[in-house]
Structure formats: C-alpha cells, structure tokens
Task: structure prediction
Amino acid sequence: MMKRVTWFAGGVAAGAVGANYAARKVRETAAQITPSQVARSVADRARYAGGQLVDAVREGRQVARQHEDELRARREGRLESLADHVEPGDKVFVDGVAVESGRVIVMRERHRAAR
Result:
C-alpha cells in the first residue's frame, strides 16, 4: 500500500511540475508573437542581414515605379514597341548584347507646356 501512495504522490508532483513548466512556456511564446514583438524581430533580422532586406525593398520599389511609368506611358500613347520598327531577321542590340525586339520598350517623354 505504501508503494502505491509513493508512486501516486510522485505522479502528482511530476504532473504539477510539468503543467507549470508547460504554462510558463506557453506564456513566454505568446509574449514573443505579439505584433509589436514580431515587427521588432523582423527589423532586427533585417539589420543583422547586412541590409539585404533593405536592398530588396528598395529594388522592389524601383521596379514598381518603372512599371507604373510604363503603364502611364501606354495609357498616354507614349509607348511604342521596338518590334513595330524592326524588320523580321533584324537583330537588336542593347549595350552590345543581342536581345529580342519584343522585349525592348521605347518610351518618349512629353514635355508639358508651361502654365
């Protein structure tokens, strides 16, 4: 009978310690995944990543601006494809590298009249 009481008491103690440990870990993890903490963590990683994330964001913004410029030019009729001006079999070179004529876009800038 004494063995059963000992094992029961040991089980209760182990269960209490385990439940306390699990509750503490859940609270710590919940504190780490709050929105402000996640944002801080991402910012820290960006700083420690040698600025690669900052470069990627900068490059993404630049590409978005270029795409917006292209869409505006197309809407305003300032956009022409080089393929419209190249005969079949002609080669197009950009910076000394042969490219497909359909991949080259020529944009003209219109100067607005002074008000």
